[in-house]
Amino acid sequence: MNKFFTIQICLLLVISVTFVGMVYYTDIYDKTQGGIVEVLCLSCIKLFPLTSTDFTFETGTGEPHPDFIWESLRTGPVFLHYSEDACAACDVMFPSVTEFLQVKPIKDKSFYKLTSVDDKPVHYYYIYLDDEATSEEQLHTFEIYDKDHIHGLPMFSVVTINYAHSGVIEPYYTTLYGQFEDTDEQRIEFFSELMDEAFQLYDENLPGFIK
Amino acid sequence: MKFQLKRLWFQILTFFSINLGALGLRTGFCFPLFYCHACPSATSACPLRSFEKSVYKGSFALDSILYPILILGFFGTITGRAICGWACPIGLLQRATGGPARQLKKFKFVKRIGSYRFEPILRYTKYIMLIGLVFVTPYFIGFMFTDVCPIGVLTGTMPIILLEPYKFVPSSFFWYAMIIFILFIILIFLVERGWCRYFCPIGAFLAPFNKISMIHVDVDLEKCVHCNLCSIECPMGIDVPNMYKDPECILCGKCVNVCPRDAIAYGRF
After folding, report:
1. Does B29 contact A22 at a Cβ distance shorter than 8 Å?
2. Which of A80, A199, B71, B73 is 20 to 30 A from B44, comparing alpha carbons?
3. pLDDT per residue as tens digits for the range A147-165
4. How many Cβ pairs closer than 8 A exist between chain A and B?
5. Domain holding B229: CATH number?
6. pTM here?
7. Are residues B90 and B219 in the same domain?
8. Residue B8 distance to chain A (closest CA, Å)
């Protein structure tokens, strides 16, 4: 019995030390918290968020829009595309977005390109939440543009500008979540209509915005 | 009976503690039991999701696979499958359905379900579920278990639909998951602890730890008179007098309580 007890204690020690070591020396705790616990797993709930293209001024967290968005908006609307490891719906939506915007990001690396749609400039930010190289500022936009507080992936935000009630022209955005439409063609059509609206607002308000 | 009341309190306490996410506590740990992190009030991650993510479509993230193994291994080494009997909220649910399941045993058809010769073989299904649906299919095809998981429906989908009914629409897996969920409900009403016995992948992971765990249930064969009261009482349908560190034992202690000769007791180390 003593021999067996020694084995049990050794096993428990090995497990405990490895566990403490993992939590202390690796980012597994943050990875689990940020990648599983805090992100709504759409596959687990077997539901997709209702896609609403309504634009709004109010950010998900109530914080102001980040600097890089303001800077980008000086030359064109912004398309933010969020993804993460092991996200089935992200994989489905990825080709539609890349084809629509004529961009070629690597799936697991954050990426930026000033691209165009109908010869109009669009700032495309592909924000991969599990890419260590992604800046904190970009990662935080996942909260800022979580319009409906869904916190699910994939997530797409289109930021343009509009005349706010405050009397100034401010960033105006909408966010879409999860997987929608059935085919790539339908999704491209959907994004195309959304971008048309974004361009229209952008063109109408640009003179006042640059001032 | 007092002992079983203590166990009930422990289960209820665990249920509340794993739902402290409602108060904002969202940790980076994995549960050592079956509960969905998609539940709006869950505090931690489902270990199965971490397993699935670690091997998704040919990838292999050693840290994500080792992390839940260590958490489950820690509790498994100390208590074996006692987690199923003492902490798991799905165990608590099945405790509630255990009464009706026993009543339904009066019907011949229901009684037969648990007495077929293949019943012990059916218990291996959970190991197949663990290896097949949690590791193999995510590696080669993609998520399958989480897409249809009945526990996800119960603890994730349903609370979300109740809390935010206008925010979501069913995905393509929704109705398949609902069918499986209905079958799950039928199962736990027909067979006492049917989910734990046959299908729970977490139970499958913890089961081998019963062989080496520090706490287990021992039967003193010299005292035993083979009245079989313990086997009748056992929610897992174990032949208690003939068990030795049985992988199916959830250490609920019902056999300990019911034994008229005190031949069954918790053993340590």
Report:
1. no
2. A80
3. 988 888 899 999 999 988 7
4. 148
5. 3.30.70.20
6. 0.88
7. no
8. 27
